[in-house]
Amino acid sequence: MQVESLEPSRQDQVVAATLECIRRSERLYARTFTPPLITFDLTGRSAGMYRVQGERRQIRYNPYIFSKYFADNLANTVPHEVAHFIVNALYGRRKVQPHGIEWRAVMHRLGAEPSVTCRYDLSGIPQRRQRRFEYSCACNTHAVSAVRHNRAQTGKGRYLCRQCRQPLVFSGGEL
Ligand SMILES: [Zn+2]
Ligand SMILES: [Zn+2]
After folding, report:
1. What is the DSSP code (8-state) at residue 174?
2. Among 42, 69, 70, 145, which residue is least crowded by beta carbons within 10 Å?
């Protein structure tokens, strides 16, 4: 059975929880953070994604995975993506691993479990026809197409981030 997209009232709940998590971070770090854009336009296998495009910071949530596993995503995906945003706000483009010690430290301060792999049963979740693989550089997360992923993995292609000029490294995950 096809899972329905997350209903608007529950999207509001997720946005409120995200903003509350950011306010909590402001108290913990004794500074302000201008909240990122929060959207529900992520599809595929990941529940959430944080990305920076120029000046634009964005947390993207997957409305189907949130719909199927609402409580779990509210408790785990929200602080997970907020922690990426906080690390980016604190360290900017300095070289930090996506789920490295800086990110884990923020997760601990938020009282969240710093686990990376959350394997959900995705039956009923609409999937993209084109697969996308998650790569990271020093500043961001990138979605790489299957063709480019195969080239990179067979040594036939090497890709650089246009912003930080660092090579894109496969994070082991699929988006
Ligand atoms: Zn992450
Ligand atoms: Zn970069």
Report:
1. E
2. 145
99 CA to centre of ligand 1 in angstroms: 6
Q: Would you give the DSSP letter of residue 168?
A: P
> Which CATH fold topology does 1-126 show?
Zincin-like (3.30.2010)
Known catalytic membership, residue 81? yes
DSSP 8-state assignment for residue 157:
-
Cα–Cα distance measured from residue 161 to residue 173, given in angstroms and rounded to the nearest whole number: 18
* Interatomic CA distance for residues 155 and 162, integer angstroms: 20
Q: How many residues in the chain? A: 175
Closest ligand to C-alpha of residue 54 is: 2
Output the six-digit token pair for 50.
Answer: 């944080």
* In the chain, where the domains are located: 1-126, 128-175
Per-residue pLDDT of 121-159, as tens digits, reads: 888 988 877 788 989 988 888 989 999 999 999 998 889
Query: Rounded to the nearest 5°, which phi and psi values hold at 56?
Result: -90, 125
pLDDT digits (tens, 9 = 90+) for 88-105: 999 987 778 888 999 999
- From 7, 81, 102, 113, active-site residue: 81
User: What is the 81 CA–ligand 1 centroid distance (Å)?
Assistant: 6
